[in-house]
Design goal:
alpha+beta; 5-stranded antiparallel beta sheet; 22 strands; globular
């Protein structure tokens, strides 16, 4: 607001947080409400990557200088630590850091394996309210066939505790099953006590090949896919093996000990949907850029610039936007198609493994040629380019220069190709995605279109057209919500303006 004077606040809400106050003579009532709004929404401290583009930007503004309050400094300390310790896996994917789930441990907590027709063995519910809430069954000590094991017991607080003997130990499924590999692109093992030199492998059988052998096996990575937890998450990328197709009938996990007896704790073994989101990498970059813009902490940039470059490089390679002119999500289940065929509830045909979510709207199958992922990626490339320019202009920071590619031209080229691809000329707004069948999906996604404007992805003409629709001045035929009803809730528009009953993942089909 023009002419406002900034001072430290004295209101009840603001005093508690020591936030700045706003003073405009004659507008005390309005400004008091604004201060209350800031105070009510300034406290969340969330480490989940999903919020990196929103919360640092929205909560760090009172902490920009040495005169900032203690509560503001605490917020700055929190986000510094959160971003500095954000886990990036060996390939460059930035993990989600949401609560413990039953899908990919670096992704969203669901869809879970038992929602998907998968298979799993869990030996404890300790510190896992999500599993209790979802009534995930616990396996008994006899749940897996064991070799090279002198003793086995269930510790309710830890899981299956094994005392090994001999040079090799193996755990295998007892009863045959029939699980589609489509809903099991990963197998996740949460365990501890296994030495890094154990040469652990996961094997499987099929109807055509009923015996375990090296042909159908993969090494089990022993790096932790979810650091900060007492047990290691090993995530085996089954989908990368050429023989992982059709249905599999059994699993066997084996590893070496070099003759030493060990205590091995196995919490769980289960198949996993690829619940990663393609937006975590660009969200992390945007969060880091916002932190640096607000605080100017060169040491933070020194600690994270190579991590930022790694995440951009991963997105560049994984989503091949230079090749496709947009972010194309190649992951299993992220093909943009619904997880069921429309029809009466009792007649719906479910397609397990299809329609996995890609962003905050986790029940919606954004994917394949994904507009929202493209918009956020475009914003992140521009933010990274700004950081690189700052480094170039300040040699006294003594930070290494970027060596690979021109980020500005990369962003320009991506926008030039993508904003035309995703623009629906008839409706005058951006669509969610083009699925693997080439079908576009448009339910009037207000959040997508507004962020496209915010990040400069939309052209000026597109922005005017979008706002005319949202302001109710332009009526779109077929929309459920039109005119003034778009802002029915007053504080913001509806998330969508056309009723959606047919485009969700298989886990939300009612």
């Amino acid at each position: 607001m023009a002419g406002c004077l900034l001072a430290f606040c004295s209101g009840a809400f603001a005093a508690q947080l020591e936030l700045p106050s706003f003073s405009v003579p004659g507008h005390e009532r309005e400004l008091a409400r604004l201060e209350r709004l800031f105070a009510l929404h300034h406290s969340p401290k969330i480490i989940c990557t999903l919020w990196d583009a929103w919360l640092p930007m929205s909560t760090l503004w009172p902490a920009t200088g040495p005169e900032g309050s203690e509560s503001a400094k605490a917020m700055r300390d929190f986000y510094r630590h959160s971003l500095n310790t954000r886990n990036i896996d060996a390939e460059g994917y930035v993990t989600m850091n949401q609560h413990r789930g039953l899908a990919h441990p670096g992704g969203w907590p669901f869809p879970t394996w038992h929602q998907s027709g998968g298979i799993g063995w869990h030996f404890t519910h300790a510190d896992d309210p999500y599993s209790i809430q979802l009534k995930v069954p616990l396996a008994p000590v006899e749940g897996l066939t064991k070799t090279g094991v002198a003793a086995a017991r269930i510790d309710p607080a830890r899981g299956l505790v094994l005392t090994t003997e001999g040079s090799e130990t193996s755990l295998a499924s007892v009863h045959p099953f029939r699980v589609n590999t489509l809903i099991a692109p990963f197998v996740v093992i949460e365990w501890s006590g296994v030495p890094s030199e154990a040469n652990a492998r996961l094997e499987w059988t099929t109807e055509a090949a009923p015996e375990f052998d090296e042909v159908r096996s993969l090494p089990v990575p022993l790096e932790n896919a979810r650091p900060g937890h007492p047990l290691r998450f090993s995530v085996v990328p089954m989908h990368r093996h050429p023989e992982w197709k059709g249905h599999f009938r059994s699993l066997r996990l084996r590893w070496n000990h070099a003759g030493a007896s060990r205590e091995i704790v196995v919490r769980s073994i289960h198949t996993a949907v690829d619940s990663r989101h393609p937006i975590t990498n660009p969200l992390f970059v945007l969060g880091c850029a916002d932190f640096f813009r607000w605080t100017g902490e060169v040491e933070f940039l020194r600690q994270n610039i190579e991590r930022i470059r790694k995440t951009i490089a991963y997105a560049r390679s994984e989503f091949a936007f230079e090749q496709h002119g947009c972010a194309l999500v190649p992951w299993v289940g992220h093909d943009g198609r619904a997880g069921f065929d429309p029809g009466p509830t009792h007649q719906k045909k479910l397609h397990f493994g299809r329609g996995v979510g890609n962003n905050y709207y986790d029940l919606l199958p954004f994917g394949h040629r994904d507009c929202y992922a493209t918009v956020i990626l475009y914003a992140a490339i521009r933010a990274a380019a700004d950081l690189e320019r700052a480094i170039e202009k300040h040699p006294e920071w003594n930070l290494p220069a970027r060596a690979d590619g021109d980020l500005d031209n990369m962003a320009i080229d991506l926008r030039k190709r993508a904003y035309e691809l995703f623009w629906n000329q008839d409706r005058g707004r951006f669509v969610a995605c083009y699925d693997a069948d080439g079908v576009d999906h448009d339910f009037g996604f207000t959040f997508l279109n507004l962020e496209a404007i915010h990040y400069g992805f939309a052209s000026d003409e597109q922005a005017r057209t979008i706002l005319a629709w949202l302001d109710g001045k332009r009526i779109i035929e077929g929309d459920t919500s039109q005119g003034t009803d778009v802002y029915h809730w007053r504080f913001g528009p509806r998330a969508t303006t056309r009723r959606n009953v047919e485009w969700y993942g298989w886990v939300w089909h009612g």
